[in-house]
Amino acid sequence: MIEARRLANGRYDGAVEDRPSYVSFLSAAWRGGGWQAALEGMALGPRMSADVNDAGDGLKRLPAQGTVNLRLARAVTGGAGPLSRGAVHLRVDNVFDALVESQVGLPLAGRTVVCGLEAWFEARTSD
């Protein structure tokens, strides 16, 4: 729990912008038979954000928000030669395409899909 306050009217009880009440992460992973999978969750607590349209203190309350992410990877083994092993992976961030605003009017990316290849090369030494 983050408890940040600013001085307002002689007391420290004014809201501080862009300071969420909490930031939480949870991850579960599995490995087996050359496969890897993970499920991740992120929760961002309620916070105040600067808002030029607010006639009061210039701050707007953003609600708690969160995302769910998935990862899947498969190990690949090579034959003889310098390319000894590698992996193919797929990652989906913000699976449910949730709207998460880091600040008023500045949303984070929606659903994002990333795929890639990894390769390991073994150096040959001569005797």
What is the element layout, followed by pairings?
Blueprint: E1 5-8, E2 11-15, E3 23-32, E4 35-44, E5 47-50, E6 59-62, E7 65-77, E8 83-93, E9 101-103, E10 106-107, E11 112-121
Antiparallel strand pairs: 1-2, 3-4, 4-7, 5-6, 7-8, 8-11, 9-10
Q: Could you explain the architecture of this structure?
A:
This protein is mostly beta strands and 127 residues long. It has one domain. The chain contains no helices and 11 strands. Strands 3-4-7-8-11 form a 5-stranded antiparallel beta sheet, with no helix packed on it. Strands 1-2 form a two-stranded antiparallel ribbon. A two-stranded antiparallel sheet has the order 5-6. A hairpin with an 8-residue loop joins β5 and β6 (59-62). It is elongated and about 75 Å long.
Please, what is the average pLDDT?
85
Structural class comes to: mainly beta
The count of DSSP E runs of length 2 or more, i.e. the number of strands, is: 11
Q: Number of helical runs? A: 0
Provide the β-strand percentage band. Answer: over 45%
Report the helical percentage. Answer: under 10%
Characterize this entry briefly:
The chain has 127 residues and is an all-beta fold. It is built from no helices and eleven strands.
Keywords:
127 residues, mainly beta, 0% helix
